[in-house]
Automatic annotation (TrEMBL):
<feature type="active site" description="Charge relay system">
    <location>
        <position position="33"/>
    </location>
</feature>
<feature type="active site" description="Charge relay system">
    <location>
        <position position="71"/>
    </location>
</feature>
<feature type="domain" description="Peptidase S8/S53">
    <location>
        <begin position="24"/>
        <end position="294"/>
    </location>
</feature>
<dbReference type="InterPro" id="IPR022398">
    <property type="entry name" value="Peptidase_S8_His-AS"/>
</dbReference>
<dbReference type="InterPro" id="IPR036852">
    <property type="entry name" value="Peptidase_S8/S53_dom_sf"/>
</dbReference>
<dbReference type="InterPro" id="IPR000209">
    <property type="entry name" value="Peptidase_S8/S53_dom"/>
</dbReference>
<dbReference type="InterPro" id="IPR023828">
    <property type="entry name" value="Peptidase_S8_Ser-AS"/>
</dbReference>
<keyword id="KW-0645">Protease</keyword>
<dbReference type="InterPro" id="IPR051048">
    <property type="entry name" value="Peptidase_S8/S53_subtilisin"/>
</dbReference>
<feature type="active site" description="Charge relay system">
    <location>
        <position position="249"/>
    </location>
</feature>
<dbReference type="Pfam" id="PF00082">
    <property type="entry name" value="Peptidase_S8"/>
</dbReference>
<keyword id="KW-0378">Hydrolase</keyword>
<dbReference type="GO" id="GO:0004252">
    <property type="term" value="F:serine-type endopeptidase activity"/>
</dbReference>
<comment type="similarity">
    <text>Belongs to the peptidase S8 family.</text>
</comment>
<dbReference type="InterPro" id="IPR023827">
    <property type="entry name" value="Peptidase_S8_Asp-AS"/>
</dbReference>
<dbReference type="GO" id="GO:0006508">
    <property type="term" value="P:proteolysis"/>
</dbReference>
<keyword id="KW-0720">Serine protease</keyword>
Amino acid sequence: MGNRQINWPEESGVELAHSSGIRGSGVLVGVLDTGIDADHQEFCDQTVNYRYVPLSSFGGRDVRGFDTEGHGTHVCGIIAGKDIGIAPEAKLYVASIIESETYETTLRRIISGLDWFLEKLSELENSEQTAVLNMSLGFPSTLIHSSRYRPYLDRMRNVLLNCVEKRDVLPIVAIGNDGKGEYCYPGAFKECFSVGAVDLQGKIANFSGSGISEGTIKPDIVGYGVDIHSSLERKCEGQSIYEKMSGTSMATPYVTGIAALYLCDKPQLKAKELKAKLIETAFPLSTQPPERVGVGLARFVPQLTDRANCPKE
């Protein structure tokens, strides 16, 4: 399947936002994933801030974006692809932190990726802006009881807390694909806005995780995450490839894209206010189990205010 604009259901509000000129202009979006193919036709016309975080604990590479697997390119396409993105004018900051490896090395790399994103937000031009962070990743809840992995999870949580409290970042995180009663970290942390998956008809996906963590029902919200068409990779000849994928990994960038539309419409929103806006405007899914869909489906609802508010590049 070639490139085409995704026809999101009317309930999403995406088409309405785009027709009103709300396309994510100037909004900062961090993505921690397998990377991004910056030369895919969805991204080749923009500058993607990219950091490759190595398996070792030494350094990192700020280079032209590449993807070790394709997952991150798919996620980024949903958020900000030129033709298929929910917020196609958003500014991407992508850290490649996932490969085939151990829990320990991945956790270390995530922490390094978070530190890099915070550094980028500290730069003068970005220092006052609210940002969104997409993490379509997760670790089994059993790791929280492990003496080996718990210190890494705690450290990651502390960095995420700094993102929220000191840099006005809203972390939007997948709850996991292990089904009812199972969830993953960091999505299960209270400070993370966790995302489950529904299909395009609003029915909960069987794989979508859920549960009670620290006295809080998770997920907080849901997004479309079944058979989602997005960018993947390129052939050797350079032809861009697209594919449909399913998972809370796809639902999470959907919610991130909606959040970017709200920040474009009202750039003065703080992270807590942005979270409240997503909760307040969610589309109720009254026929679905409430413990599995949170407040409902994330959607963009137009505000009765001036539309020309988006920050410019």
